[in-house]
Write a structure and sequence with these properties.
about 450 residues; alpha/beta; Type Iii Antifreeze Protein Isoform Hplc 12; six-stranded parallel sheet; 15 strands
Length: about 450
């Protein structure tokens, strides 16, 4: 509410939010297409490992060449133009940037960028949900201690889910479940970059011609991305994963209230207050009627005769008892909506979702029988997928976080479907991301009195 009016005022005063974007991939490009059309925002810099690729992305979404003529960040701030660089750390350190967006998707890089923002007093919007799932609770704590705002990215599903949860709770409802939709079948957990394209209904040749990355697309299919996003939601809202992780029940929008209620009352949930993802296909492969593949939802309870009567009077679709109902948003616009986070953080110092505690974790899980000597290849690869589990359970088994399961060698065999543990791999204890994650695990164990 009122963010656009506040942005117009900042524009009129000549005090735009000064923004630095790290990563000009798909999400970043979608934001680039909108930021020039938004008053009160000035994209001072874009940092990307390949500046020519970043400039191509800017041109593709409509930026004129003269808007990229700045020599450095200071020149860009003075002229109202944008400087493209390969030096993210220099951009974070620049006194001409107020807020940083990490759209890299690289967990270790995300941790480094947040810590640099803490050092230099820059707010951070984390499109990089991979880093958030790996170490978000400790990153957000460090940000609060540094006096900056750490925020999930609006347009991505976790922030949209957090918004719906906040709406329901602020209206006085108990949230029973919250999550998103996706296309899921159990066999997808075994999918690899070599088998991914038939599941999307396209050929490998067409995918290659379109520049589509098979490992990235496979991470959406094999359940990893869903686990990462639901870990972020759990940590930001306090909604807890079920002990066995995500079930992915098939469910259309008209059945949300019936399916997303506790199993003891006829639904599919382990408990009230759960994160869950619903599938857009039945287990036999038939499409779900009125599916929620691209959207998000929240189910909530009436818990009184009066509220249940109101549900009926105002036409809400409920479960058979009339006590549970749901709201949903059928689509999300990804980077096209990111400006909501930028405005909320830059104007109000309010995140659009942020980790408050460590409730959910994503553990590397074997796609097939793995042998000693093999090297794990991380998210969407040939060896492991990410499985959501309660953080306490991950800590108890010494689970290897999915975000660090890339380029590490196995010392012990791991059977298909089983979690990989820290003790199963050779890792560099001095690596910055490893040290930060281990610090979070230690702090969590201490908080639990372990």
């Amino acid at each position: 509410m009122n963010l656009h009016r506040m942005l117009q005022q900042r524009a009129a005063e000549g005090r735009p939010i000064r923004i630095g974007l790290i990563g000009a991939g798909k999400f970043g490009s979608m934001y680039l297409s909108q930021v020039r059309r938004t008053p009160g925002m000035h994209l001072v810099g874009v940092a990307d490992l390949s500046p020519p690729r970043a400039k191509e992305a800017l041109a593709r979404v409509g930026w004129p060449a003269d808007a990229l003529a700045a020599r450095d960040f200071a020149d860009a701030a003075k002229q109202g133009t944008t400087h493209v660089s390969d030096d993210a750390q220099a951009m974070i350190a620049s006194p001409h940037v107020d807020l940083v967006i990490d759209a890299t998707g690289h967990p270790a890089a995300g941790i480094a960028h947040v810590l640099a923002c803490c050092e230099h007093g820059k707010h951070i919007v984390m499109v990089n949900v991979e880093a958030d799932a790996l170490a978000g609770p400790l990153l957000a704590k460090r940000a609060r201690e540094a006096g900056i705002v750490y925020s999930l990215a609006y347009g991505d599903q976790p922030a949209l889910i957090c918004e719906m949860v906040d709406w329901a709770r602020t209206a006085g409802f108990e949230v029973v479940a919250a999550g998103k939709g996706t296309k899921y079948l159990p066999e997808y957990h075994e999918s690899t970059p070599e088998t991914v394209w038939p599941h999307y209904g396209i050929s490998a040749e067409d995918a290659k011609a379109g520049g589509m990355n098979p490992q990235m697309f496979n991470s959406f299919l094999d359940g990893t991305k869903s686990a990462i996003e639901m870990a972020a939601v759990a940590n930001a809202t306090g909604l807890l994963p079920a002990p066995r992780g995500l079930e992915f029940p098939p469910c259309g929008v008209d059945d949300l209230a019936r399916v997303l209620r506790p199993a003891a009352e006829g639904g599919r949930l382990h408990h009230r207050g759960q994160v869950e993802v619903v599938s857009s296909v039945e287990r036999d492969g038939r499409p779900v009627f009125r599916d929620l593949r691209w959207g998000v939802y929240v189910s909530f309870a009436g818990d009184s005769d009066y509220v249940r009567r109101c549900f009926r009077e105002y036409g809400l679709v409920t479960d058979p008892s009339g006590n549970y109902t749901a709201m949903y948003k059928p689509y999300h616009l990804i980077g096209l909506e990111l400006g909501i986070s930028v405005a909320s953080v830059g104007l109000r110092r309010e995140p659009t979702g942020a980790p408050e505690a460590w409730h959910g974790d994503v553990v590397a899980t074997a796609k097939r029988d793995l042998k000693p000597g093999e090297t794990l290849d991380g998210e969407g690869g040939f060896t492991v997928f990410g499985k959501l589990m309660p953080a306490a359970d991950s800590l108890a088994i010494g689970g290897l976080p999915l975000g660090l399961a890339h380029g590490v060698r196995l010392e012990r065999p791991v059977q298909a479907g089983q979690p990989v543990r820290w003790d199963d791999v050779v890792f560099d204890a001095d690596d910055g991301a490893v040290r930060f994650r281990r610090e979070m695990e230690k702090a969590f164990a201490a908080d639990r009195g372990a």
